[in-house]
Design goal:
globular, single chain, 7 helices, eleven-stranded antiparallel β-sheet, alpha+beta
């Protein structure tokens, strides 16, 4: 179960400083074989919390560490995903396979063209673009994207990139990096991503605190070797 929850969080990630101290973004994102995920991400300062609808767990970026907080059999578990990633066997179970997950990732952005049209999504007016890209399977793709320079979306995108770099050995997908370089963020991208709600209230400060001490996997492994 732990591996499935971790894979769900990591797969969703590959589908994410302007002065906003806190905020929230809700969106749907394609997760390949797992279908469409509904997610809400909230932030306070440099802390980012990711909740997936229907999943009794959440992920928290805090103090340059990424934690997974789950409940299994009524027991609360806090796991340091960076520590978990470095454990033996983590390459097979701690991180999703692009092929097995069925997710098509942008491998290269070929062109982003504004088409002189605007569209409102989640109460924000964005510019419409055609994005030509080469997928991880080598196929050429073209999708319509609605992009914005709304500071809340830019803040969210910046934290998402930071989170991906912390949790993964791979760089964020090229679309995120290209948009960041252009000072833009996505309100939608084809049928793969859609922002549904944007706000400035991150919720209670306690939502960004660890509810328990993290499991010490290193100590557990040492005990098992005794």
């Amino acid at each position: 179960m732990i591996r499935n929850v971790t894979a769900a969080f990591l797969t969703a990630l590959v589908t994410a400083a302007t002065g906003h101290a806190e905020g929230r973004v809700s969106f749907t994102a394609s997760a390949g074989d797992m279908g469409q995920m509904k997610m809400t991400e909230r932030w306070r300062g440099k802390a980012l919390r990711t909740d997936i609808e229907g999943v009794d767990a959440y992920m928290l970026l805090r103090d340059d560490t990424v934690y997974s907080i789950t409940t299994a059999g009524g027991q609360l578990m806090v796991m340091d995903l960076l520590q978990l990633k470095d454990m033996p066997g983590a390459a097979q179970g701690g991180k999703p396979s692009k092929n097995n997950a069925g997710v098509v990732f942008p491998e290269r952005i070929e062109d982003i063209r504004e088409i002189d049209e605007t569209r409102e999504i989640a109460g924000i007016t964005g510019e419409v673009y055609d994005v030509e890209w080469t997928a991880s399977d080598g196929n050429a793709q073209t999708d319509t994207a609605v992009l914005t320079d709304d500071p809340r979306l830019l803040e969210h995108q910046s934290l998402k990139i930071r989170l991906i770099r912390k949790i993964s050995d791979d760089e964020p997908n090229p679309l995120l990096l290209e948009l960041e370089a252009r000072g833009l963020a996505a309100l939608s991208f084809g049928d793969r991503f859609l922002v549904t709600k944007v706000g400035e209230d991150a919720g209670p400060a306690g939502d960004f605190e660890l509810p328990a001490e993290p499991i010490d996997f290193g100590n557990m492994m040492n005990m098992g070797n005794q």
